Amino acid sequence: MKPNHGPFEHLFHASKWSWQGLKAAWQHEQAFRIEVVASLFIVPLAVYLGESPAEQVLLLGAWMLVLIVELLNSAIEATVDRISTDFHELSGRAKDLGSAAVFLCNITFVGTWAILLLN
Q1: Which residues are tagged catalytic?
Q2: Which pTM does this prediction carry?
Q3: Does 6 map to a domain?
């Protein structure tokens, strides 16, 4: 049974768990570490190259989508591995689908940047 927290206490706990998730992703997921390091270049570049606040938000949002989906893909992989490390067709499919989602986000990121910056 979940504890009955007030809204501020709930926000505190949710923030703490979110931070733990980010730390776990940094510690255990190489792709996430690479993407965070890439953020050191991508975020300032988006702010600099975006000609309006709307363009800046689109450039940054496309990148944030990559990070978010990478975290969800990592969660899927961890869950599948927790259940069993034995090969199973459905386990492989779940991991492949998560990877495909990251791939599509990367295409969206590149496409968004190309459209906005080459226009």
Answers
A1: 70
A2: 0.89
A3: no
> Which pLDDT score, from 0 to 100, does residue 4 have?
77
Per the domain annotation, does 23 fall within a domain?
no
pLDDT for the residue 92: 95
Tell me how far apart the alpha carbons of residues 35 and 49 are, in angstroms, rounded to a whole number. 19
Contact 36, 26 (CB under 8 A): yes
Consecutive 10-residue averages of pLDDT for the chain (119 residues): 78 91 96 97 97 97 98 97 93 97 98 95
**What is the Cα–Cα distance from 8 to 113, expressed in whole angstroms?**
38
Name residues whose C-beta falls within 8 Å of residue 55's C-beta, 6 or more positions apart in sequence.
49, 116
Q: Looking at the domain assignment, is residue 1 inside a domain?
A: no
Can you give the pLDDT at residue 1? 60
DSSP secondary structure string for all residues of 39-51:
HHHHHHHHHHH-S
The answer to whether the beta carbons of residues 32 and 25 sit under 8 Å apart is: yes
Number of domains the chain contains: 1
Query: Which residues form the domain of 69?
Result: 30-118
Supply the CATH number for residue 105's domain. Answer: 1.10.287.3610
- Evaluate whether residue 9 is within a structural domain: no
